[in-house]
Design brief:
Belongs to the HAD-like hydrolase superfamily. CbbY/CbbZ/Gph/YieH family. The protein is mostly helical and 213 residues long. It is built from eight helices and five strands, in the order αααααβαβαβαββ. 40% of the residues are buried.
Length: 213
C-alpha cells in the first residue's frame, strides 16, 4: 500500500520527523530508509534507538501511539495515488483478477487509506497487526493473503516497492513486480522491475508467473 498504491511514505516521514522533534532530536536518513516496508513495532524501535532513547516495550508502544495519532491526521487529509496505481487497480477489477492488499500498516490506518483506495477494491486485506508478529520480510503476510484468497502463492504476483516487501513476497513463493518508490530495488530471478504501474499491462501479469530461466 504505502509507496506502491498511494504516495504515503512521505506522510510517514512527516510523522516520524515530528515525533523526533517532539523528543528533541532528528531522524537520520539511513534509519528512515531502513524503516521503509517495516511494521510499526520495528520502525518505532529503530526510531527510538536512532534518537538515543530507551526502546523497551512500553516506550515502543508510546511512540507507536503518538505516530499513529499523527498519521491519522495526515491520512485524513487524503492520499495521493502513485503513478498508474488507480488505473491498474481498476483494470484488475475489470479483468476479474482476485486481489489482496498486503500491508505492514496497522488496521486503523489501513481502513483510512481504503477511503481513497476503495473499500471494495480488494477481495481480502492483511494488515501489519494481523499476522501475529510475523511481519515482512517474513513470508506470513503473503502466505495469509494466499490462504484467504484460496490460491497457491506460486500463482500470485505481488506488487512491491521496498526490499522488505520484496523479500516477504519472494519467501512466500510469489512472483514479484518491483516498483521502487523511496529506496532502490535490485534485480532478482523472481522479480520484474518497472518504473511505475503506468508501465505495466495488467492483463499480461500472468506472464510473470513463468519459472525463471
Amino acid at each position: 500500500m504505502d509507496g506502491t498504491l498511494v504516495d504515503s511514505e512521505k506522510l510517514w516521514t512527516i510523522a516520524l520527523d515530528d515525533y523526533a522533534a517532539h523528543r528533541g532530536g532528528s531522524l537520520s536518513q539511513q534509519t528512515r530508509e531502513d524503516m521503509v516496508g517495516s511494521n510499526m513495532t520495528r520502525s518505532m524501535r529503530l526510531l527510538l534507538v536512532d534518537l538515543g532513547l530507551p526502546d523497551g516495550n512500553s516506550e515502543i508502544a508510546g511512540a507507536a501511539s503518538w505516530v499513529a495519532r499523527r498519521m491519522t491526521e495526515l491520512f485524513g487529509e487524503g492520499l495521493p495515488w502513485r503513478p498508474g496505481a488507480e488505473e491498474a487497480l481498476a483494470r484488475a477489477k475489470e479483468l476479474g483478477l482476485r486481489t489482496a492488499l498486503v500491508t505492514s500498516t496497522i488496521r486503523p490506518l489501513t481502513d483510512l487509506a481504503l477511503d481513497t483506495l476503495g473499500h471494495d477494491s480488494f477481495d481480502v486485506t492483511v494488515c501489519g497487526d494481523e499476522v501475529d508478529g510475523k511481519n515482512k520480510p517474513d513470508p506470513e503476510p503473503y502466505l495469509k493473503a494466499a490462504r484467504l484468497l484460496g490460491v497457491d502463492p506460486a500463482d500470485c504476483v505481488a506488487v512491491e516497492d521496498s526490499p522488505t516487501g520484496v523479500a516477504s513476497a519472494e519467501a512466500a513463493g510469489c512472483a514479484v513486480l518491483a516498483i521502487p518508490c523511496e529506496v532502490p530495488l535490485s534485480p532478482g530471478p523472481r522479480r520484474t522491475l518497472r518504473d511505475s504501474l503506468a508501465d505495466v499491462d495488467i492483463a499480461a501479469l500472468g506472464e510473470l508467473l513463468a519459472p525463471a530461466a
